[in-house]
Amino acid sequence: MGRSPCCEKAHTNKGAWTREEDERLAAHVRAHGEGCWRSLPSAAGLLRCGKSCRLRWINYLRPDLKRGNFTRDEDDLIVKLHSLLGNKWSLIAARLPGRTDNEIKNYWNTHIRRKLLGRGIDPVTHRPVVATTTVSFADPDAPPKPPRLILSSPPPPTPLQPVKEEESKPPRCPDLNLDLCISLPFQQQEDALPPPRAHVKTEQGGGLCFSSNFLGLRAGMLDFRSLPMK
DNA sequence: AACCCTCGCAACCGCGCAGAG
DNA sequence: TCTCTGCGCGGTTGCGAGGGT
Question: Superkingdom of the source (predicted)?
């Protein structure tokens, strides 16, 4: 038996929101604040599911939303954060004021993903991809298979997961240096004391430290301690 | 002009997590 | 400690707009 539905679906509207619904929702949130989404629809006189109201408010009605095209800086930041965090859109959105996780997720899937692929970069691993062609000797008349994309290196561990030591196995790509230790240019190192760091708590209670300069952020801009970790 | 296809975005769905009782 | 409930997140879907044939 599955969990009970979050609302009585027979009595709720679905699909695109009307202007009147938007106004009711916005007025109610402005008056009572966010939260209690389950009871909000009836309180606001809306025939909508609480989840739907929350989504509408967060992704569309919130007054601090930026909307409009993403800037080049935002673009770069999203790519860098994604390489670090993976598909943690809410965490990425938390670093981009005025942008929502849904918006970033859509932008990633429609624009950035394609752009990276066009540059020959795998959007999942952020590593270069190499096109190869498989040739079959068994049937010379068989049509050639389409080019296949393979990774030039094994995929990295899932973001934010502790790296497991491979015991005494030689690396598959010995020419690839995966040590992501990034340091500041000499002049900047002198200016940044102590170096800004982001601290991420792991499941084991340990921590991963990233220099926020790796993300191209200003000192102190990145502080994962303030972010909820799932 | 009509049809088809692709793209982009808003919205939905299902699951996991956290807090309360 | 267990169960229930609500919230939040990530993946997926549906639909309208725009372009191509």
Answer: Eukaryota
